[in-house]
Amino acid sequence: MAHVRLIRRAASYPQTERILVHPGIKKALCEGADKLGGDKSWLAKVRPFWGHHYHFHVRISCPPGSVGCKSQKPVTGKLGCDQELAYWYRVLTRPKPRIARPKTKRKPRPPVTLARLPAECREVLDARPVVAPAPVPVQR
Questions:
Q1: Of 58, 8, 55, 75, which Cα lies nearest the Cα of 36?
Q2: Could you say which of 47, 92, 97, 118 is the most buried, measured as most Cβ atoms within 10 Å of its Cβ?
Q3: Positive or negative torsion for Cα 115, 116, 119, 124
Q4: CATH (domain of 15)
Q5: Domain range spanning residue 30?
Q6: Residue 53 and residue 93: Cα distance in Å, rounded?
Q7: pLDDT, tens digit, 9 for 90 and up, residues 51-101
Q8: Any domain includes 103
Q9: Region 96-121: what's the mean pLDDT?
Q10: DSSP result, the chain
Q11: What pLDDT shows up at residue 19?
């Protein structure tokens, strides 16, 4: 249940546009949300997507004045726990066709360095960290 609470918390922020997870994780979140009760609208931001077996991605909205950033369309309000999830399970369980691949050696990709990142990514990495306010001592 801690995982459900974590993703629910991340999805509850208005700046969060989407959270990408594996379809199996989305299914577990749908089931976990039923156990938690209450508002389930946060599930609409959680979308199944390929390759997210052990992690999730959080897509945040564009900061004001950001030139190169494009916001995503708002979520429809559908939780995605029924037909959409059933579609993903059909796709995942479909037998994969065998494709004959040519046996050629590919040139290895160069490592990702800070210099090769887009300017927008470097701007995020160079940003000043947000410092949480110091806790207020409790008088007893």
A1: 8
A2: 47
A3: negative
A4: 3.30.1380.10
A5: 1-63+71-95
A6: 15
A7: 777 788 899 888 888 888 888 888 887 888 888 888 887 887 777 777 777
A8: no
A9: 80
A10: -HHHHHHHHHHHSTTEEEEEE-HHHHHHHHHHHHHH-S--GGGGGEEE-TT-SS--EEEEPPPTT-SS--PPPPP-S---SSHHHHHHHHHHHSPPPP-PPP--PPPPPPPP-GGGS-HHHHHHHHSPPPPPPPPPPPP-
A11: 92
Strand partners for 6: none
Q: How far does Cα 40 stand from its chain's mean position?
A: 17
β-bridge mates for residue 19, sequence order: 46, 58
Task: Give the contacts of 132 (CB within 8 A, at least 6 positions apart).
Answer: none
Total structural domains in the chain? 1
Six-digit token pair at 132?
């949480």
Identify the pLDDT of residue 133: 65
Q: Under a CB-based contact definition with an 8 Å cutoff, are residues 42 and 81 in contact?
A: no
Q: What amino acid occupies position 48? A: P
- Rg of the chain over Cα atoms, rounded to whole angstroms, equals 20
Tell me, yes or no, whether 136 lies in a domain.
Answer: no
